[in-house]
Design the sequence.
């Protein structure tokens, strides 16, 4: 049986997994969780993922959530083409960048993107969203130094670290964040990959 992904087409975290599927050409089955109808907060979905979030992966009775854990599982079980460097230091750097992506970027991006994409203007909290934007800009300035003179985050090889960023880089314009130069070049290059084009959300 194919690997199954419970996801939503507008979900940034789900898109990380879709990109990995495309890069590794993994046959899969997609199951849309109707988040507008709040099915992610109800049974039977909560039995699968008690945190009520997407994505959740299922394979032969094995259930896994958290997009970064799913990416690591796909890499461990389907290593070709590799999305991790072969050496310990390269792998550690990928892990570090995946973690930093979630700590320093995505949680702040969520603060801006959820209201901007899904709530009417009168329900936005401008002060909280402005603070999130400042935090993102600070992180991108650090990332810019890392990326100067590089094509990818780690070892001049496209990796899970780049994938973690891709769905969020897509929304920098919507968040009104102007990326510094090296981040802008990296982002444009990543978002032109066929895996990014094939998984680009409508909204
Ligand atoms: N850390 C989780 C975040 C997943 C996440 O927040 N997904 C969003 C959709 S993009 C969600 O399910 N939100 C529903 C909710 O939090 O109620 C991961 O990496 O998979």
Sequence:
């Amino acid at each position: 049986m194919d690997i199954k992904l419970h996801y939503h087409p507008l979900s940034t975290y789900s898109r990380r997994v879709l990109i990995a599927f495309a890069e590794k050409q993994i046959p899969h089955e997609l199951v849309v969780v109707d988040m507008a109808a709040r099915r992610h907060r109800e049974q039977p979905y909560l039995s699968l993922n008690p945190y009520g979030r997407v994505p959740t992966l299922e394979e032969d009775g094995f259930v896994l959530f958290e997009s970064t854990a799913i990416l690591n599982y796909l890499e461990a079980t389907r290593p070709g083409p590799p999305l991790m460097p072969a050496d310990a230091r390269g792998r550690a750097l990928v892990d570090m960048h995946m973690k930093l992506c979630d700590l320093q970027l995505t949680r702040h991006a969520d603060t801006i993107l959820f209201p901007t994409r899904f709530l009417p203007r009168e329900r936005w909290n401008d002060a909280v969203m402005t603070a999130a934007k400042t935090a993102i800009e600070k992180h991108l300035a650090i990332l810019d130094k890392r990326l100067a003179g590089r094509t990818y985050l780690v070892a001049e090889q496209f990796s899970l670290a780049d994938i973690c960023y891709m769905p969020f880089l897509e929304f920098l314009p919507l968040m009104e964040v102007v990326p510094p130069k090296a981040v802008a070049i990296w982002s444009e290059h990543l978002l032109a990959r066929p895996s990014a084009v094939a998984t680009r959300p409508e909204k």
